[in-house]
Design a protein that fits this description.
Layout: H1 5-17, H2 24-35, H3 40-50, H4 54-63, H5 65-68, E1 77-82, H6 88-102, E2 115-120, E3 132-134, E4 137-139, H7 144-150
Parallel strand pairs: 1-2
Antiparallel strand pairs: 1-3, 3-4
Helix pairs in contact: 1-2, 1-3
Bound molecules: FE2/S2 (inorganic) cluster.
Length: 154
């Protein structure tokens, strides 16, 4: 990602105007607002301008899902399971098993931060359930073992 000079000027100005220059949450919110992503080079820039350690910025990012999902270069896998009327019986089982294996938090993010697990009410393919979407592609007539293979859990 090409980040223009103006962004860095604005970011530096924002940091300099902060009462607490080490308030990385505020700084990361600013970055997200402007770029909708938090590139590694911007994290380094923040560390340089604030005196914060890069690892501490990284820890803040990993703590907040809204930041965690926006680190550029890191692609989070989005898995959505249909728990609607027709798919629901299997769907709920799949969801519970995956949530347990991946140690999903209340925001639907796996413990390793690599997967977002959500549910859907219907994909409009009720006669082909269970239906699961992985990164926007819908897979029908899924089994738990096929799902695990597709997600690299087996
Ligand atoms: S209920 Fe699952 S696709 Fe409709």
């Amino acid at each position: 990602m090409e980040i223009n000079k103006e962004f860095y000027i604005e970011l530096e100005k924002f940091i300099n105007e902060l009462k607490d220059k080490k308030n990385d949450v505020k700084i990361l919110n600013f970055v997200l607002e402007k770029l909708d992503i938090i590139p590694i080079e911007v994290q380094k820039f923040i560390a340089d301008k604030t005196g914060l350690l890069e690892i501490s910025i990284e820890n803040t990012i990993n703590f907040y899902p809204k930041f965690r999902n926006k680190v550029s270069g890191k692609k989070i896998k989005e898995v959505s399971i249909c728990v609607g009327m027709t798919c629901g019986l299997y769907g709920k089982e799949f969801y519970e098993e995956l949530a347990k294996i991946l140690e999903i938090d209340e925001d639907g993010i796996s413990k390793d931060g690599n997967m977002l697990l959500t549910t859907k009410r219907c994909f409009g393919r009720c006669n082909k359930g269970p239906n699961i979407s992985i990164d926007g592609e819908i897979y029908s007539m899924m089994t738990m073992s096929e799902l695990k293979i597709r997600l690299g859990l087996k």
